[in-house]
Amino acid sequence: MIMNKASILEWEKLRFLGEGLWGSVYLAKIVSHSSSSIPSYVALKLADANSSSTLQLEKTILDDLKGCPQIVQCFGCAFSVENGKLVYNLLLEYANGGTLEQLMEVSGDRMQEFEVSKFTYMLLKGLCHVHHKGYVHGDIKPDNILVFVTKQEDGEDEYSLKIADFGLAKSTSCDNAGEVGIVGVDIWALGSVVAEMLVGKSLWCSNVQLDVMLLIMCKESVDKWLEILPEFLSREAKDFLRRCMTMNKNDRWTGDRLLRHPFITQFHGTSLCEI
User: Which of 48, 63, 139, 223 is catalytic?
Assistant: First the structure.
């Protein structure tokens, strides 16, 4: 039996999902509870109570971000006793499709630009919400992006992405949350994720691609390092990456502006940006 101020919960751990910097994650089945908002299955993120300050801060941030379809949902928290120790548990939305990193590993190939554009739109919507609320995520990468799979009436699988793991998130109170400034860190990271989906591997995974990073870090022309990218990428895709990954963070486009980039609108139309 696990108790907190709001409800009484009882769950059963089904299997281990992964280990992060701030805690272990398990798939859990809710056996009994007094809240109708908790689903039957959750991702249980837990840590020793004495070292759970980061998880507790993550809950505070997720509560503030609640309501955005592109941000993982938090259903609450509770303390439990395991092996004689007090444990802090964070109840999160379970992603039945794993992570974006796992999805790319399974596919073993690059994604089509139409699909990357759709996924990028979802990530931008989530990031815009984070930035508008006054936070920077600080750790955008494929392993921190969750995949949700829904079976459609025609039998096809529909994929959607949600941003997770806010353990490194910070307040942007010193900056205007609507400006680039510190949030440019997230925009850069988004560009890296988009490039990995487009190319099928990380830009930083080999000595050849190390040339890209060196060119950027040496403040060479963005157009010059873009020439190293594969020729099969469209002009719109390359320009989108350029807008995300220019060395000067103040020159990077905001999430709101990127939503209206041709790489997004060419496939989905400008009406998509108004959803």
Answer: 139
